[in-house]
């Protein structure tokens, strides 16, 4: 698997995480017991299914290799393996963060460095 994985979150959640030094996840993450992450090729589907039309979103790029055994690739949408992080995300694993622009068509535009 590629060494970079991604998390979509709100601008406010990222600010809170930066104040704490760790990202503890969204309400959905807390409900499910792990932080939902995506590989690059899963991002468009994740955005369309869970974040359609939402503004003020940030894309976090994470070094998967620094997460150790707490990162598990498990079956999810359509049986595809998705990265799930059991426990908080230490922001030391964050490679970069960038706002997700919302196009006129209501779809989010991924940063160029994510696109193949």
Describe the structure.
This protein has 116 residues and is α+β, with helices and mostly antiparallel strands. The protein has a single domain (4-102), classed as ADP-ribosylation fold, CATH 3.20.170. Helix content is 21%, strand content 35%. It contains 3 helices and 9 strands. The protein has helices spanning 11-20, 27-32, 43-50; strands spanning 4-10, 22-23, 35-36, 57-63, 71-75, 81-85, 89-90, 94-102, 108-109. A 4-stranded antiparallel β-sheet has the order 1-4-8-9. The chain has a 3-stranded antiparallel β-sheet with strand order 3-6-5. The chain has a two-stranded antiparallel ribbon with strand order 2-7. The chain is globular. The model has no long low-confidence stretch (mean pLDDT 92).
Low-pLDDT regions: none
Shape: globular
- Helical amount among residues, as a percent range? 10-25%
Tally of separate helices: 3
CATH topology heading: ADP-ribosylation fold
Rg is 13 Å
Summed over residues and divided by their number, the pLDDT gives a mean of 92
The count of DSSP E runs of length 2 or more, i.e. the number of strands, is 9
What is the CATH top level name?
A: Alpha Beta
Question: Could you give the order of strands across the largest sheet?
Answer: 1-4-8-9
Beta fraction: 35-45%
**Distance N to C terminus:** 15 Å
Tell me the CATH superfamily.
Protein of unknown function DUF952
CATH architecture grouping? Alpha-Beta Barrel
Pattern of helices and strands: EHEHEHEEEEEE
């Amino acid at each position: 698997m590629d060494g970079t994985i991604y998390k979509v979150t709100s601008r406010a959640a990222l600010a809170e995480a930066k104040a704490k030094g760790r990202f503890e996840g969204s309400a959905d993450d807390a409900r499910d017991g792990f932080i939902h992450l995506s590989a690059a090729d899963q991002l468009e589907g994740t955005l369309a299914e869970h974040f359609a039309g939402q503004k003020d979103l940030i894309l976090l790029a994470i070094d998967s290799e620094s997460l150790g055994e707490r990162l598990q690739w498990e079956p999810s949408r359509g049986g595809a393996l998705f990265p799930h992080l059991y426990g908080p995300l230490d922001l030391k694993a964050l490679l970069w963060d960038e706002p997700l622009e919302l196009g006129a068509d209501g779809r989010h535009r991924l940063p160029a460095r994510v696109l193949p």
